[in-house]
Amino acid sequence: MICLSVVLFSRVLPKSVRKPKGQKKVRVQKIFDYPSSMGHYDADVCTFRCFDDRFTRATEELERAQGWTHHVDRIVRPGGAKRLICDDPSDPTIDAASCLDDMQLSVKLHHPKVIAIFLHQECGAYGDAMPKEHDKALEFIAVELRRARETIEESGLPCRIRTFAAMFDGIREIDPPFHTVTARSN
Fold first, then answer.
1. What whole-number distance in Å separates Cα of residue 113 and Cα of residue 161?
2. Interval 58-109: pLDDT, tens
3. DSSP letters for 23-76
4. For residue range 17-46, what is the model confidence (pLDDT) as tens digits?
5. Residue among 141, 171, 149, 132 at smallest CA distance from 48
6. What pLDDT sits at residue 22?
7. Nearby residues of 63 by Cβ (< 8 Å), 6 or more positions away
8. Is the pLDDT of residue 181 over 90?
């Protein structure tokens, strides 16, 4: 049997916010000390990905490798990019409007310059529609990520959009932006 210890919330609340009659007192126990910053921040990036934990570490390592180390707004939804693709309104895994609302809120509050969209190999939200074989899965993911990108672009969000395929052997960028290197002059 699991036993939870709780303590009564000791602060006296003004009458305007006291509990309605018949409700139990709120009980609160502090379980972890950690000082969080109360200051406002600007995010380096807003990421949108599936909640499949097999790829969490890889996506966090990619964030570090990309230099997105200060603040990251993470939107995590089952199916990730699939939720942005509106083929079948009766499919409960598709809710592009809600996902775009989350991204718009990130942009409004934390001003990321980049939105990074992830889709991973063997995503359960796709079921048997996603191929099992690596190269075919990568091709399928690339097409889906392009469709997700189009949805975001059509919404008018003022951010650069980058798309990533999370595979079991690493992460690949789909349609990466061209990077130019300026030669140093002596």
1. 9
2. 999 999 999 998 899 999 999 999 999 866 667 666 688 889 999 999 999 9
3. PPPPB-------PPP-S----SEEEEE---GGGHHHHHHHHHHTT--S-EEEEE
4. 566 677 788 889 889 999 888 888 999 999
5. 149
6. 75
7. 45, 47, 69, 72
8. no
Of the two residues 5 and 155, the one the predictor is more confident about is 155
Structure tokens at 11: 């602060």
Query: Of the candidates 55, 155, 182, 144, which has an alpha carbon nearest to the alpha carbon of residue 99?
Result: 155
Task: Return the pLDDT at 97.
Answer: 86
C-beta of residue 39 within 8 angstroms of C-beta of residue 18: no
82: alpha, beta or left, given left = phi > 0 and alpha = psi -120 to 50? alpha
Q: Is 54 left (phi over 0), alpha (psi -120 to 50) or beta?
A: alpha
Burial 54-84 (b: 16+ CB within 10 A, else e): ebeebbeebbeeeebeeebbbbebebbbbbb
d(CA 133, CA 144): 16
For 53, residues 6+ apart whose C-beta sits below 8 A from its C-beta are: none
